[in-house]
């Protein structure tokens, strides 16, 4: 009985201790690595890491920072708690503390059960106090000569934390580096600034200094009054877009001469002649560039520009003189154009006679014609009399001009042609149906407006392929022309070549037989079986079961080769001619399949596109793309 009672008492004691332990451990342990650093005389930054995983006892929902003043070795009973409601936080900035004061800081974690154990105390001493910010006043005046003066005045700080020793004034354009002026003595309470620019927002800062350092800064922003620019625009340049079109560019006046925000420019561009000056251009622009057109060849011109602020204009730039070139290449004549589809236009013109001087043409087109050709779409074409503009907006109207191109630049620009992307004089809905290896069925609809004399069909092609020797060949297929009755809207073109892309044009010829652009499509004929190959060449026997051979390559004129089969047929009366076997029969006799014959026709190898070897050992027993190159039977053909 005694032994049993002792054991029972021990069990109750252990049970009681366990419950006591659980009651202690339901709140988190203390945060680790607590560090405290003074930021300035009134702020500190407290950082920490969370309690170790086994001591968190739940989800950390925040932290409490306990801050107490230390008065020598005595710690007052009161403390300032700061709560952070973020379980992931690892630092906190405490503000509004007292300068030149020592503080004790502790951190505790918070869960739903409450705040946990506090960390070991960390002490920090705040730096000595610095003055608070002065009261700052800024006023600007302009004298009778237009000179700007800015008077900066301030009052001494209300909390100097010691004797004031001077002030620091900083100023400059807002967002840029500030100039600094140091003023010694507590009686220096103003400063006049005379080097400020007009029309600029300035940032002005003033701070007082005591025996510790400079204090808080008083900040004011001051917009200086604008005035007309005192200098002209700079860096004036010009460039010819065409001989009759010139673009001028420039920069704003130098910063000290702007006197505000530049809002506009006046430009004068004139012929430099005394009598009958019929070319005087006075324009204004808000940009640093302008374009003039209609210039004459071999003529003198002058240019000048001035800038404006909200207070008026500044001085003009120096007169810029320039001279246009003589003997310019003339503009293409008789430019015309028509829509050929709902997204394309064909234009044509008379060639410019130049004795070989012209090397091509430059086509300019846009939906918003203006003098600045840099804003137009451009297309370069060789020496030709026509061009097709593609990927245009449906039913939009385009302005189009053309200039001849020489080695030294562009010639004169043609007159502007306006064309709407709406086909009215071309066959509609041109399509190709039932395209085979050698033919295609063309269908189309009548033009919307034009009553044609007849339809003219033309087609040609340029074919490129790799021949049996592996050489790339280019063949030009000549143009074929066919005339069709004006009431017939379909035609089959025949005698085409396999796997060839033809350009097909169908033109509605007017009663006057004037030129009209065609409706165009491209038609690619279907592939055909490869042309017959030359037979392999045998150049020796290797051992009892192999034959050395040279394999031919097929021409890709009728379409790209997918792969090659190397077929072996024993020369025996029991077997058919090699051409009489179907591919399926040969695959059925594949090595390892149930249908494979002991001997008979079979596929010895498969070679993928352009991977066929030049020389090959027939019967070497290797696998080629799933087919076994079986050893040949001795003394058998």
From TrEMBL:
Residue ranges annotated for the Fibronectin type-III domain, each copy included: 30-129, 130-230, 232-327, 331-424, 426-528
Keyword set includes ATP-binding: no
UniProt keyword Transcription regulation, yes or no: no
Database matches in InterPro entries: FN3_dom, FN3_sf, Ig-like_fold, RTP_Phos/Ushers
GO CC list: membrane
Swiss-Prot/TrEMBL keywords: Repeat, Signal
SMART domains: FN3 (SM00060)
SUPFAM superfamilies per UniProt: Fibronectin type III (SSF49265)
Domain of life: Eukaryota
Any Pfam family hit: fn3
Signal peptide segment: 1-20
TM regions (residue ranges): none
Name of the protein: Fibronectin type-III domain-containing protein
Organism: Halocaridina rubra
Organism ancestry: Eukaryota, Metazoa, Ecdysozoa, Arthropoda, Crustacea
């Amino acid at each position: 009985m005694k032994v049993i009672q002792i054991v029972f008492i021990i069990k109750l004691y252990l049970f009681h201790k366990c419950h006591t332990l659980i009651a202690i451990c339901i709140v988190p342990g203390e945060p680790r690595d607590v560090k405290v650093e003074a930021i300035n005389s009134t702020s500190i930054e407290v950082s920490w890491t969370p309690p170790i995983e086994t001591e968190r006892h739940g989800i950390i929902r925040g932290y409490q920072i306990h801050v107490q003043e230390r008065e020598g070795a005595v710690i007052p009973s009161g403390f300032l708690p700061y709560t952070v409601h973020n379980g992931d936080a690892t630092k906190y900035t405490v503000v509004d503390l007292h300068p030149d004061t020592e503080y004790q800081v502790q951190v505790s974690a918070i869960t739903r059960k409450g705040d946990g154990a506090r960390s070991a105390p960390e002490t920090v001493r705040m730096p000595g106090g610095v003055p608070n910010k002065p009261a700052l006043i800024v006023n600007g005046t302009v004298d009778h000569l237009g000179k700007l003066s800015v008077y900066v005045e301030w009052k001494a700080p209300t909390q100097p934390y010691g004797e004031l020793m001077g002030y620091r004034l900083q100023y400059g354009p807002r967002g840029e580096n500030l100039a600094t002026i140091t003023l010694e003595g507590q009686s220096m309470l103003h400063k006049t600034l005379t080097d400020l620019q007009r029309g600029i927002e300035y940032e002005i800062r003033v701070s007082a200094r005591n025996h510790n350092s400079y204090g808080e800064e008083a900040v004011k922003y001051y917009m200086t009054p604008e005035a007309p620019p005192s200098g002209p625009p700079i860096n004036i340049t010009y460039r010819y877009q065409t001989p009759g079109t010139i673009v001028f560019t420039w920069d704003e006046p130098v910063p000290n001469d702007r006197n505000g925000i530049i809002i506009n420019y006046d430009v004068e561009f004139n012929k430099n002649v005394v009598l009958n000056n019929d070319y005087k251009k006075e324009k204004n622009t808000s940009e640093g560039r302008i374009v003039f057109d209609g210039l004459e060849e071999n003529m003198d011109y002058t240019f000048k520009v001035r800038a404006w602020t909200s207070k008026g204009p500044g001085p003009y730039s120096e007169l810029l003189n320039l001279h246009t070139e003589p003997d310019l290449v003339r503009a293409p004549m008789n430019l015309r154009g028509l829509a050929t589809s709902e997204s394309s236009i064909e234009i044509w013109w008379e060639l410019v006679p130049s004795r070989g001087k012209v090397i091509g043409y430059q086509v300019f087109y846009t939906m918003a014609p203006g003098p600045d050709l840099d804003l137009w779409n451009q297309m370069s074409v060789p020496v030709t009399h026509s061009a097709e503009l593609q990927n245009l907006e449906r039913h939009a109207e385009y302005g189009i001009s053309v200039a001849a191109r020489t080695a030294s630049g562009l010639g004169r620009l043609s007159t502007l042609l306006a064309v709407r992307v709406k086909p009215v004089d071309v066959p509609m809905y041109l399509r190709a149906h039932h395209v085979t290896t050698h033919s295609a069925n063309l269908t189309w609809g009548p033009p919307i407006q034009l009553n044609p004399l007849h339809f003219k069909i033309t087609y040609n092609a340029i074919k490129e392929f790799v021949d049996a020797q592996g050489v790339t060949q280019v063949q030009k297929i000549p143009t074929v022309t066919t005339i069709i009755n004006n009431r017939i809207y379909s035609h089959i073109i025949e005698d085409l070549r396999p796997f060839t892309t033809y350009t097909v044009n169908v033109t509605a010829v007017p009663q006057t037989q004037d030129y009209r652009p065609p409706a165009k499509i491209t038609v690619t004929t279907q592939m055909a079986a490869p042309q017959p190959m030359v037979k392999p060449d045998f150049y020796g026997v290797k051992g009892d079961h192999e034959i050395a051979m040279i394999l031919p390559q097929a021409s890709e004129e009728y379409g790209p080769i997918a792969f090659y089969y190397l077929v072996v047929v024993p020369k025996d009366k029991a077997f058919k001619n090699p051409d009489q076997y179907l591919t399926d029969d040969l695959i059925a006799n594949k090595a390892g399949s149930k249908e494979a014959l002991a001997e008979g026709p079979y596929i010895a190898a498969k070679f993928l596109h352009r991977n066929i070897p030049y020389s090959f050992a027939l019967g070497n027993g290797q696998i080629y793309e799933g087919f076994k190159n079986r050893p040949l039977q001795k003394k058998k053909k």
